[in-house]
Queue: 3 jobs
Job 1
Amino acid sequence: MSASDITQMIEAVDRLAAAGFAMGPEWQAVHEICQGHEGEAPFDWGHAICHRIEGDDWNADYWYRRAGKRRGSGTVAEEWPVMKAELLKYL
């Protein structure tokens, strides 16, 4: 996992956030980035968020566990700043 990989994910999730965390091309881009780094905790966390947006809580919880995280009670929009702050530590 390189800093550029983390940067790519941050930029993709920022675009997804700008699109209102809705299913669509921005969601697909984040999902593909995360799938390409399966087994790396930051990307597994991103994968969890993708499946939360999709409405698949069971699958989201699986990815949260793989990332060493838990799904909170807040929205994805509330979770993203917390996640982004943690991701920026990798840079």
Job 2
Amino acid sequence: MTEYEHVRVAVIGSGFGGLGAAVRLRREGITDFVVLERASGVGGTWRDNSYPGCACDVPSHLYSFSFAPNPDWPRTFSGQEHIRAYLEHVADVFRLRPHIRFDSEVKRMAWDPEQLRWDIETASGSLSADVVISATGPLSDPKIPEIPGLESFPGKVFHSARWDHDYDLTGKRVAMVGTGASAIQIVPAIQPKVAGLTLFQRTPPWVMPRIDRAISGPERWLHKRLPFTAQARRGLLWGIRELQVQAFTKHPNELGFVERLAKGNMARAVKDPALRAKLTPDYRIGCKRILLSSEYYPALTRPNVDVVASGLREIRGNTLVAADGSEAEVDAIVFGTGFRVTDMPIAERVVGADGRTLAESWKDGMESLRGASAAGFPNWMTIIGPNTGLGNSSMILMIESQLNYMADYLRQLDVLGGRAALDARPSAVHAWNRRVQDRMRRTVWNTGGCTSWYMDASGRNTTIWPGTTSEFRRATRRVDLAEYEVLRAPATEETADRAERPEVTA
């Protein structure tokens, strides 16, 4: 990368959002762009999360781009290796690799109001761009809690998203901290090989069976030869989830039936009433993400597993002490404690028009216009931005909606002509977020009685979209220029002088 390179569009990240943006740019006829990736390969969260048992909890045919269907998914719920292979395939088929700059983590980017461009410093050099598409994703930067004594723990420590494959857990005493989506996949995967497994559980999750199976050869043949069959399968999966949304957003009490199914799932696997009591949540199902596993509960009943229904309080040498005073001697600690979702580190590196970072602008909570544009940050858009997350369906649907918005945003800049930029009006941003938060009040995520990573430090849900994917698609179909301020580059002395000269006619 040359020091003074300039591109029309810079995309940050090469996960689903970044690769999707790159494909859409090419389909719009835009080839003057780069994809800045901090790692040495594509895949985003599906590259970073390679822990044992890692898989998606969204059906395979719904967890892929509509413009890049995969008739060869091997299972109804695909594993990490298959999803990463799919993303590698997308990068190859759509000829994206010449645009990707690996090992190019963004260190800082600042808006230049004179040139109407973003100046970007990366680990591999500097460049500038007219437009930035930030697709770093909310599940990209692991969060490890501050626990007294952790720095002096003599054993092995790592986060689920930074799995150390060189460290063999066989015969080791292992602590699993956390009971989220990663933990319930890790526990059954490592339980048979470890000497002992202590699960530190602050809040038990609701777990439903994961009805996973191999997709047969005839099914795959049919999807390949008759693509409309795969489209119909995808449509059915999407429709079922769209019908479920009202229970989450308007009528949480209707989820009581699902709760009973989840309790039945637990009762079939866990016969010990004391253990069942530890594992039974005290909040409405759906308040936290409903997890899918048919192996988690059986693994917890094995003799080498101990469930501590209390958070980890401190560490004394090899001894882990829970908040309830119980202790466990371990050789390794695995943190399944989530990610920096509502305080994304990339926000600390983005400097807007007034000299403030995005993190400073969002100090009272993330908010953006239609999940994409932040006031004071012209020609900057985010994929999977504030209030675009889902509690029951595929994020790829939301990403594709945001790609529609991105494409129209770039078209509007073309129509404006010259050196122009669009800056979201604060009034439009606040109006959009006021409507979102008003709708959020009655949802299960706000009323279900739990504390989740959907909420920011002030208790506001800045993560989830309180509606259907269809509603979001309609809301992001077009850019409304009335919601933006149009910025023009200041006239240079040469252009100003030319404008003042009288027209000379023959």
Job 3
Amino acid sequence: MTVSAAPGTFQLASPDLLRSTFRRHAAGVAVITASGDRGPVGFTATSLTSVSADPPMVSFGIGTGASSWPVVAEAEYVGVHILGEHQGDLAATFARSGADRFGAPTAWSPGPEGVPVLDGVLAWLVCRIVGRVPAGDHRIVLAEVVLGDPTGTGRPLLYHQGSFTALRD
């Protein structure tokens, strides 16, 4: 391995190196939802990516140890919600382990294909899962867009340096 950085300034690959590096990467914040036998599940994701325009397809990552994984592993459809800068508390609720994610004050309703749809988001999609790709301790979920609503108003919520934030002018 050839290293051009000054000695002592680099680290070998590790989970901590990856986390520290990606804390410096600003990412949009989404909530992924699905419906299971025991009710709705959901989690906050910063790994949402547009994959294809034709057909319209997205991807996101989910840890196999996540409480939502067993439902997402079996679900046919998921909801993808783009959060606004006013929804930091909602993002935190869906990121918190053990939280009642769909209890008050979360406003939502059953949507198309039974997918939980969150109120007040900038945009939402209902997507059909077409693949789950193993990736270390995660799965990359590929999902084809079925329908959605991009008409919410406001500016996007971002995740940077370990906290939720907004765009600056």
